[in-house]
Design a protein that fits this description.
Strand content: under 5%
Order of helices and strands: HHHHEEHEH
Radius of gyration: 20 Å
């Protein structure tokens, strides 16, 4: 995959990811969506759960592009090694060009990672309500053998006052949290590589 193609993919996928994650953030805060087409479910709680996974997975893809571009430009200065948002400026040594590339990286990779962490933080201690009244005092991170044995999926549960929770409360919270943790760890690793390149003596 050549460099111009990587730049285009990074820009398109990154812009979509940021729009989606910001929309989901707004949905979680207000219960209303900004861009209805990219909300994967009509209920807020389910959209947040599905969207948190989507943010993490797409961020992995973006970081793969960053890593690939990084290796293709291994002998060049740090500002050449970050993919541009949509196109590369003519003179990458210009301070404005450097700022644009850093801004794109922050916007398309770091911000969605922070939003995913926010979702996990908001959900972790939220009460999970069993409409049938069998399980009590559950939270998002609760994991009980009774729930697993009964196979309690889907519409039986809700998060707080939000209906329509399509998840398995005994397993999914752990999986989602690990996925987000891995996403953020890889993001921090890429930031570390960038900082080392920026401050390395020429």
């Amino acid at each position: 995959m050549d460099r111009p193609t990587l730049v285009k993919i990074y820009g398109v996928v990154g812009a979509t990811l940021f729009s989606f994650s910001f929309n989901l953030f707004w949905l979680e805060r207000t219960g209303a969506s900004i861009i209805k087409q990219i909300v994967p479910h009509s209920q807020t709680a389910s959209a947040i759960l599905i969207g948190t996974v989507a943010i993490a997975l797409v961020s992995y893809f973006l970081l793969l592009i960053v890593d690939r571009h990084w290796r293709l430009q291994a002998t060049r200065p740090w500002y050449n090694r970050l993919p541009g948002a949509f196109v590369d400026p003519p003179d990458l040594r210009d301070w404005l060009a450097k700022a644009i590339k850093l801004f794109a990286y922050l916007l398309f990779v770091i911000v969605p990672a922070c939003i995913a962490v926010h979702f996990i933080d908001e959900l972790w201690f939220k009460p999970v309500v069993d409409r049938q009244g069998v399980f009590n005092d559950l939270t998002f991170h609760s994991m009980t053998s009774a729930i697993r044995a009964e196979g309690a999926f889907g519409e039986r549960f809700r998060i707080g006052d939000r209906d329509g929770v399509s998840f398995f409360p005994a397993i999914e919270p752990i999986g989602i949290s690990l996925l987000v943790a891995a996403q953020c760890a890889w993001t921090l690793f890429q930031i570390g590589r960038l900082l080392r390149s920026m401050y390395r003596r020429k």
